[in-house]
Design a protein that fits this description.
By secondary structure, the protein is α+β, with helices and mostly antiparallel strands. It has helices spanning about 1-30, 80-95, 135-140, 150-185, 195-200, 205-275, 280-360; strands at about 30, 45-50, 55-60, 65-70, 75, 105-110, 115, 125, 370-375, 380-385, 395-400. The protein is built from seven helices and eleven strands.
Length: about 400
């Protein structure tokens, strides 16, 4: 754990030191001067001496800037031009070869140039005549929106995190509007106020479009609730009408039974006196039973209809409670999602702040800047250059892309 903390602190301090050093270098850099083609360690020169193949050949410059030839020995050529080396050779050979000497010196390989920074393939490249900044960048595969020392996985992670941050901003705006809509639905309101944070997150125009969709959704949900409630209320009303109809039918059957029972009592009295026939008595008895059956059936249908009306009334009240419960449950979920979105945005911002610069994510609207480091003897100078500035052998070219501004943190 301590090692991890130490590495984190050391990395942060190193990044800060690099940024400060780079800022100071850019501030002090001068315009790149014209190249000077003088020999230095790493160059290879070709020497041709007429009629003397033993001394002719290719000679790489040693670390001290000298070359070694037979008969002549060590010859310090570092810091000199090829023409000056030709004159040095002629002067040395005069003491060895008395006749006139023809000597030519050319550079068979200049020391390479180094390309660093925001290029596709940073590295060491051979120098060629007329090499300028633009051609050098092309040799390295062109400029890239990634720093040279950034691992590709880290850069991809930072790029992905930046995209996720923007996505979470839109997600948070939508959640805030949904929260506002749910609160208005619960209060029975028909308008939808747009929270100021939504406009800060996605802009006024996008916020208005999102609010319009939420208002449309609120209207549809209200209409659907009203249709369902009205349907249950109508069902309850129809069931009550049906129940009343069966109640009336039961009352009619009851009155008819009363009439038949009086007739039946009369027939029973006449029968006892022998003044009526048994068939008439049986007929009246059967009619009484039929009306009693009709009364019981009407009572059963009336009870069923009233039960249906009660169920419909309960369902209508239940729809109101159900809607309230759904709004409350969704409101709880939305507020939890809002908290998660804020936490995700905060984590993304922290990651971008810590690793965005080291990953070299660049501002797409900025132009590349070029720094050329050039050694002159024991001194090193750093210059600013343009796309057509000429390089000289041994130069180090660094391509710099400005990082984008970090996104604002969640409100």
């Amino acid at each position: 754990m301590k090692d991890r903390i130490f590495r984190h602190v050391f990395r942060s301090a190193s990044c800060l030191a690099i940024v400060l050093a780079l800022t100071t270098t850019v501030a002090l850099a001068e315009d790149l001067p014209e190249p000077q083609f003088r020999l230095a360690p790493g160059d290879v020169i070709a020497i041709s001496i007429f009629a003397n193949n033993d001394l002719s050949g290719s000679y790489p410059l040693r670390e001290d800037g000298s070359i070694a030839l037979h008969l002549i020995g060590s010859l310090p050529v570092g810091g000199r031009t090829p023409a000056e080396v030709e004159q040095m050779l002629r002067d040395r050979l005069k003491t060895i070869i008395p006749e006139p000497i023809s000597t030519t010196v050319s550079v068979s390989r200049w020391r390479p140039v180094a390309l660093l920074g925001a290029v596709a393939q940073p590295g060491i490249y051979d120098y060629s005549s007329g090499l300028d900044v633009m051609r050098a960048v092309a040799l390295a595969g062109g400029s890239l929106r990634l720093a040279a020392d950034a691992p590709v996985s880290q850069a991809m992670r930072v790029t992905e995190e930046a995209g996720r941050y923007l996505g979470m901003k839109a997600r948070l705006a939508a959640l805030l509007l949904e929260e506002s809509r749910l609160l208005q639905e619960r209060a029975g309101a028909t308008d939808l106020p747009v929270p100021p944070e939504v406009e800060r997150l996605v802009g006024a125009e996008t916020a208005a479009q999102l609010a319009e969709e939420q208002v449309r959704l609120m209207d549809l949900r209200r209409q659907l609730h009203e249709i369902r409630t009205q349907g249950e209320e109508e069902r309850a009303g129809l069931s009550l009408i049906e129940a009343q109809s069966f109640a009336d039918r039961r009352s009619l059957s009851k009155r008819q039974i009363e009439e038949i029972e009086r007739d039946l009592e009369k027939q029973r009295s006449l029968r006892e006196q022998g003044l009526t026939v048994a068939a008439r008595y049986l007929e009246v008895t059967l009619a009484a039973d039929q009306y009693r059956s009709n009364e019981l059936e009407a009572a059963a249908f009336e009870a069923a209809a009233r039960q249906s009306a009660s169920a419909a009334t309960s369902a209508a009240r239940g729809l109101v409670s159900q809607r309230e419960e759904e709004i409350t449950q969704r409101l709880t979920e939305v507020r939890q999602e809002i908290a998660e979105a804020r936490a995700t945005m905060a984590a993304s911002r922290n990651l971008l702040a810590e690793f965005g610069g080291s990953a070299g994510l660049a501002d797409p609207t900025s132009e590349p800047r070029y720094l050329v480091t050039r050694r002159a003897g024991t001194q090193t100078h750093t210059y600013t250059a343009g796309p057509v500035s000429l390089l000289q052998p041994g130069d180090t070219l660094e391509v710099i892309l400005d990082p984008p501004a970090l996104p604002e943190g969640p409100q």
